[in-house]
Model the fold of this input.
Amino acid sequence: MFFKKSVHIDSHIDTLVGHDTQIHGNMHFAGGLRVDGQIAGNVIEKREHPSTLIISENGAITGAVEASKVVLNGLIRGPVKASVFIELQSKARIVGDLYYKSLEMHTGAVIEGKLIYVGEQPPEVTVPELT
Done:
């Protein structure tokens, strides 16, 4: 009867990019990453460690983003790939394509790009060659 989130967002933060912090360059992370500052570069989780990326209202990333779970209330300029879940809060803005498996979008969130569903991939079908 009541809506229950099926995806648990881990609030444990291993790394914090503070409000007055600016990073120029690519960043690879594991665990929980919270961005309150600015990152100019790609932000990508380590493949063997499903991770959570939280970008606050003041946070911004200019570059590609790849993470299992993403909670966005700031700005991303670049493609975003969320392999498990993405939550776009009311002040979220993505300027680029969004690849997602599960999406929650609040009123006010903006996506300037394509929405591309990458849910369960169907098994490849091989077509026999005609002889």
Remarks:
- The first strand starts at residue 15 and ends at 17.
